[in-house]
Design goal:
Structural class: alpha/beta
Shape: globular
Strand content: 15-25%
Number of helices: 29
Helix content: 40-55%
Number of strands: 26
Strand order of the largest sheet: 16-15-13-11-10-9-24-25-26
Distance between the termini: 70 Å
């Protein structure tokens, strides 16, 4: 490898490592690792001392740049209020969700009134969320607006493998969300604000073009064209279309991406070569096409990122036609991360960067294998007409090979990240993407050209109709292809998330495979490296059963809801309750519980207890049953009194899942030294009868007793206490610590060492101060999801270990009760009292 090329790549990699080491808090270990790696590079690759010193400084530059980037603070950071008013400017396109009846956009505030305190001359970025039903006029980028509503900080991930919404917004320099109650539009953007005025004009032009296409193309084709060509956020396909595209592995087509940039430039390059444009002129005109397209789409991050990357590469090619494409890509990546280190955590950037590297390294090798066939093909038709030669150029072996090679390589580099972030894999995505490659190229270019022509007087009539007629055919075929591949039962397979080693090892396998293909598998050293990489990859999937004779109890942080997972010493699993649903209609099971089960490679439950049919206990039940084999479901009663109970009972019956009604003092699971019992309080004439009569469960392991009270309080306890042991070591407090969940007498009788409370932000004042006072008064160590997030208790003989999920380092950490946990402001006691005081 050329030394300049290698050094350019190393600069980028060392800088990235510096950024990542800061984010994951292993700076000291990373510094030592870099030092060792540099010594190895000096010894084995003859890297000179000066360059190694530069690389070491580059690593620290990445670390320092990340430190500065992630610690930008201002006076409005982490403020929350039940009522706040902010004034400023809309700085992004509106993202309209029909399903959730919400409109969201980014907003730059220049003044604010929070908690009755005024802040002037601020420069803070917010995410604004507003119900569509209160919007009576269209919001446009650049508009000046006054918004009033509730100010909140986004929830960080407080469970292992959970999507971190706080980090996602922080990467976009947003630390607060305003949920709007009312607004007042102050003024539209004017010419003095040149940037947003230009963006506003381009948005209006784009909407005008889409309206012209709407005369000839109907839904869903119009929305798909808008996504492919413009990445339009103003019109969205319906959920069925999105689901089909997702399951067929074509979801990336519904939003303009870096692929569109590459296709538009690629088609222009092909046209320029046909009409024999000079090399530099072809590059310059192609660059102009890319810039125009970027403006037309309104600068979405994926398009902007791809355009910058391509323009830098093109600039490098103009300076030096023989400039190495791989080195240019790494150099561009380095420059982009130098400007914004946070971009390294953007999934779009990761996909663009790694897929581009894969295409540059692998595709030429694959196509080169068809060179001899190409020569024979061209020799055979060398005396053909010019038109026939164009057709031969289009359908030559190497051209056809590229149609397969590009999506093949792209999918191979995408799959590990898809499994890592989304826990799924579309097995037919390769075939689907190969099938649509010709359509996407044509649609992208047709849409781009027709959009330009639509702005020219005299060209917006018959020409647009002809273009739309052709586009409509391809769009219909695209929909049919997505429907076909999505119709298979295994169109989308749930997987566990690949770890970092498996991701990189998979990419190394692809690269070694390419290297062996280049040498026709004749280089023994390369072949051995390939076989070793494959072996390590498959060995990493072997799950070593951990028979430590331990009992584990996991308490998920599902906010003001319940879900517990028990792992027995025999590695069997029991679940108590399945969490709730969010306002978006997504359950805790989808967002948190199933992700944990998949990534721990748990796919079978011995028992699932649904303590009662309240939404905060049973809403995720069907999602748990869909993704996991459940041997037995135990429910409170076999009668539907609500929509959710009706859905669960119908699902159990229709899918012939073994279920039964809970009985009092019944053993539902046991193994050596462990029994798991259910209790059913017989409560009558009580206003909280559903809660008090919820299924109570007792887990006994050797000399330890753990009692889960579900939503039952002291009333339910009085009904079953004669069946209970004299000593309870761990007590899960009922009803999220509500008033009446425990009494002093109950605690003195049970004598627990620890209390578990599953609770989150709520308007019911959970946990009630009287509950906390009783626990404090009796010196009970309290583990609350509100304070500690996800928690795990490990019991072995008389020994116990307690861990909680640290939201800063995103790892399990030993829980120390003497320390005050670092928690989001909206989850602390002060805020709970503030909310209770201001409920009315």
């Amino acid at each position: 490898m050329n030394k300049v090329k290698l050094f350019t790549i190393l600069i980028t990699l060392f800088y990235i490592f510096g950024v990542i080491s800061y984010f994951y808090h292993f700076e000291i270990f990373a510094s030592f690792t870099v030092f060792v790696v540099l010594l190895l590079l000096i010894k084995f690759l003859d890297l000179d001392f000066k360059k190694s010193l530069i690389l070491y400084f580059i690593f620290f530059a990445g670390l320092i740049r990340a430190l500065n980037s992630f610690n930008l603070a201002d006076e409005l950071d982490n403020l929350i209020s039940n009522f706040a008013t902010i004034k400023g400017q809309i700085i992004s396109h509106s993202d309209v969700s029909i399903k959730n009846q919400k409109t969201k956009f980014f907003f730059r505030a220049d003044s604010a009134n929070i908690n009755q305190e005024k802040y002037n001359d601020v420069n803070t970025k917010f995410l604004v969320s507003i119900d569509n039903e209160i919007i009576d006029e269209k919001f446009e980028i650049g508009d000046y607006v006054e918004f009033s509503g509730k100010l909140r900080t986004p929830n960080p991930s407080s469970n292992p493998y959970q999507f971190d919404y706080e980090r996602y917004l922080l990467n976009k320099d947003v630390k607060n969300i305003l949920y709007v109650d009312s607004y007042k539009k102050l003024k539209s953007v004017d010419k003095s604000d040149k940037w947003y005025y230009a963006l506003n004009k381009f948005e209006k032009i784009r909407n005008k073009i889409i309206d012209k296409h709407a005369k000839n193309i109907k839904s869903p084709n119009l929305e798909i064209l808008g996504g492919i060509v413009f990445g339009s956020e103003t019109i969205n396909p319906d959920e069925e279309i999105k689901e089909n595209f997702k399951n067929s592995g074509l979801l990336h087509l519904l939003a303009a991406s870096g692929l569109n940039v590459a296709l538009i430039y690629g088609i222009w390059w092909w046209i320029a070569s046909l009409i024999r444009f000079p090399y530099n002129l072809s590059i310059l005109t192609g660059a102009i096409c890319v810039i125009l397209y970027t403006f037309m789409t309104g600068f979405p991050p994926s398009i902007l990122r791809a355009s910058i990357m391509l323009l830098f590469v093109l600039f490098g090619k103009i300076i030096d036609r023989n400039a190495n494409s791989l080195a240019l890509i790494f150099f561009v990546g380095f420059l982009m991360l130098l400007i914004s280190p946070k971009m390294i955590f953007d999934i779009g950037f990761q996909l663009s960067f790694i897929v581009t590297i894969g295409l540059v390294v692998c595709v030429p090798v694959i196509i080169s294998k068809f060179d001899n066939l190409d020569k024979k093909f061209k020799e055979k038709y060398k005396n053909s007409s010019r038109f026939k030669k164009y057709l031969i150029f289009l359908f030559s072996p190497s051209a056809l090979a590229s149609v397969v090679a590009v999506p093949l390589v792209a999918q191979l580099f995408v799959i590990p990240l898809q499994m890592h972030y989304f826990n799924n894999f579309a097995p037919f995505s390769l075939l689907a993407n190969i099938a649509v490659v010709p359509f996407i190229g044509v649609l992208s270019f047709l849409g781009f050209v027709s959009s330009i022509l639509a702005l020219i007087p005299g060209f917006d009539g018959i020409i647009i109709k002809i273009f739309d007629f052709i586009a409509n055919i391809f769009l219909t075929l695209l929909v049919k292809i997505s429907e076909f591949f999505a119709s298979f039962k295994i169109s989308l397979i749930s997987t566990y998330a690949l770890n970092i080693f498996q991701i990189f090892d998979f990419w190394i396998i692809v690269l070694f495979l390419t290297l062996n293909l280049k040498t026709n598998f004749k280089n023994k050293k390369h072949l051995i490296l390939l076989l070793v990489s494959i072996s390590l990859f498959f060995l990493s999937f072997i799950k070593i059963e951990n028979f430590k004779n331990e009992l584990e109890i996991m308490m998920f942080d599902v906010e003001n809801a319940d879900s517990f997972l028990i792992k027995t010493p025999k590695n069997k699993y029991i679940m108590i309750d399945a969490g709730k649903k969010s306002y978006k209609g997504t359950s805790s099971a989808q967002l948190i519980i199933n992700k944990y089960l998949k990534n721990k490679r748990i796919n079978s439950l011995e028992v699932l207890i649904i303590t009662h049919f309240d939404m905060d206990h049973c809403a995720g039940t069907i999602d748990i049953l869909k993704e996991n084999k459940v041997k037995q479901v135990i429910i409170q009663k076999d009668e539907a009194k609500s929509l959710i109970s009706d859905e669960i009972l119908n699902y159990l019956k229709n899918n012939k899942i073994n279920y039964k009604i809970a009985k009092n003092d019944e053993i539902v699971y046991q193994e050596k030294d462990l029994t798991f019992k259910t209790y059913v309080p017989l409560v009558e004439n009580n206003k909280n009868i559903d809660n008090e009569a919820s299924i109570v469960t007792l887990l006994n392991y050797k000399n330890k007793n753990i009692l889960f009270m579900a939503d039952s309080g002291h009333v339910g306890y009085e009904n079953i206490k004669t069946f209970l042991p004299n000593k309870i070591d761990i007590l899960k407090i009922g009803h999220h610590g509500a008033k009446g969940s425990i009494t002093d007498e109950m605690i003195k009788e049970l004598k627990p060492d620890y209390a578990l409370i599953s609770v989150g932000f709520n308007k019911f004042n959970h946990p009630h101060f009287s509950t906390i006072e009783i626990l404090d008064r009796n010196n009970i160590k309290t583990i609350s999801t509100k304070n500690f997030g996800f928690s795990k208790i490990i019991l072995k003989n008389d020994d116990e270990k307690i861990y909680h999920f640290n939201i800063e380092i995103k790892k399990l950490q030993t829980l120390r009760f003497i320390e005050k946990p670092k928690i989001p402001f909206h989850k602390n006691e002060f805020f709970q009292k503030f909310i209770q005081k201001n409920l009315n």
